[in-house]
């Protein structure tokens, strides 16, 4: 491991002017100032309100963090309640007799739907990369659906 030199952090000291200190305090009083807080803070266009500029990560940082997060998890991505409502609504369009679903059946349908969507988006991403783009467009998804690719439901 490489050896690195560590420097001691110095505390800045400054004396107060008569304007800053006020009439009742002595002028020779000194205060300690943290060097990090003495830096000017970035502000928005509206300088009168004193609002601070919102912290932003560099482009792509949050996307890579989300990719790592979702690759680690095994949970379902679509919220269960809206998906179940949608399944019941579609079922009601086709058959008025089928009104009851077991939780296992709804879970199986949701897992299959997410698997299908994720595979479709993976294939569409490959189509976009083949077109020398990184942005996924509607024509990539249409091409991926037309090609079909290998559909493995295991």
TrEMBL record:
Compositionally biased spans, kind Polar residues: 25-41
SMART domains in the cross-refs: H3 (SM00428)
SUPFAM superfamilies: Histone-fold (SSF47113)
A GO cellular-component term linked to this record: nucleosome
Domain Core Histone H2A/H2B/H3 residues, every copy: 59-147
Record field: compositional bias (Basic residues): 1-14
Molecular functions per Gene Ontology: DNA binding; protein heterodimerization activity; structural constituent of chromatin
Top-rank lineage group of the source organism: Eukaryota
Region (Disordered): 1-55
UniProt cross-references to PANTHER family, sorted A to Z: HISTONE H3 (PTHR11426)
Family listed: Belongs to the histone H3 family.
Entry protein name: Centromere specific histone H3 variant
